[in-house]
Amino acid sequence: MNLSTYQQSIKENMPYLTDKMVIDFVNGLDAASELNNKTMQPSSFFSRNLSLVSGKTQQAQANINDHLIVGLEACQHYFHEVLQSQDSHTHAILDIHQKLKNTQLGVSKLTDYVLDFQQQIEQRVCQVSNRLDRLESYGYAYTQMGHVIAKLKAEKFSKLSLLGQCYTTLDTLYWGDFGLYLRTYSDDKKKDELLETLENELIATFKQNLQIGAKEDLHQGEWLSLPNEHQETQALQHALAYQGDWSGLSPNEYPIVFMATQYHDLPEEKKPEYKNLNLNMIDINRVSKRMIGEMNSRIESSRLTGIGL
C-alpha cells in the first residue's frame, strides 16, 4: 500500500501516527544498519568470495530487507488499525451527537411540560387563593353582621327612632366587612344567603324588642317617633341625617331610608309632602325587607360604578 496517498489525511486526522511510524522505521533501520555494517566490514578477497559462495552476504541482505519490510508492514498495519479506530470513533461520535440531539429534544419537551405544569399550578394556586380570600371575606362579613345585630338586640341604638335603628344597623354593615363582601364578590347565592339571614335577624330582633308579631302593623308615626327630646337624641338624629343624605337625591327611589334619616330635619311645612312615600301602617316584615332592598340597591350602584365605599 502506498502510504503517501494518505499523507494529508494522516496529518489532519491522526497526528500521532507519524510518531509510531518513525519509531518503527528507526527500529528497523537500526537493525538494518547494524547488519549492513557487519557486511561492509573490511575483509580479504578470499573471505568476501567465501561469503558469496557460502551465501552469507545474500543472507545479510535478506535480513536487511526483512527488517525494512517488517517496518513498512508495521506502519501499514497500524495505519489500518487507526483508520478502523477512527471510523469506529466517527460512528460513536455521530451516535453520541444523535443521542444528545434526542436528549435536547426531550429536555425541550420536558421544559415545555414543566412550564405548562407550572402555569396550571399557578392558575390553581390563584383560584385557591381567590377562593380563600372569598371565604375569609365571607367570614368577616358574617361576623360583623352578628356583632351589629347583637348590639341592636341589646338596644344599643334605642336613642333613635325605630326606623333610625334599622337604618343605623344596615348603614354600619354597609361601611364594614359586610358591605365590602357584597361589593367585591358577585356570588349571588352567597349574597342572597347573607341578605336573607340579615332580614331574618332584623325581624326576630324587632319582634323581641317590640314584643309584637312580625306581621303586626305599626303606624308610621310609631316608626318615626324619637324616644325623647333630649339633646343627645337630637344630636344622634342630626348625625343620622348626615349619614343618609344620599337618599335626599332620590327620595322616591329610597323612600324608607329617606324617611328614616331625613324626615325629622325637614321644615314642618315640607313634611306632609313626604308622608305618602311609605304606607301609614307597616309591619316589621316589610320594613326590614324594603330597607335591606334599598341598601342592596345602593351597594349594587356603588359596585357597578367602581366606588369602594
Provide a short characterization of the protein structure.
The protein has 309 residues and is mostly helical. The chain has helices at residues 7-13, 17-40, 45-54, 56-153, 162-175, 177-184, 188-210, 220-224, 231-243, 255-261, 271-274, 284-304; strands at residues 218-219, 281-282.
Describe the structure.
This protein is mainly alpha-helical and 309 residues long. It has 2 domains: 3-113, no CATH class; 155-304, no CATH class. The protein has 12 helices and 2 strands. It has helices spanning 7-13, 17-40, 45-54, 56-153, 162-175, 177-184, 188-210, 220-224, 231-243, 255-261, 271-274, 284-304, and strands at residues 218-219, 281-282. Strands 1-2 form a two-stranded antiparallel ribbon. Helix 2 runs antiparallel to helix 4, helix 4 crosses helix 6 and helix 6 crosses helix 12. It is rod-shaped and about 155 Å long. It starts with 6 loop residues before the first helix and ends in a 5-residue tail after the last helix. The model has no long low-confidence stretch (mean pLDDT 79).
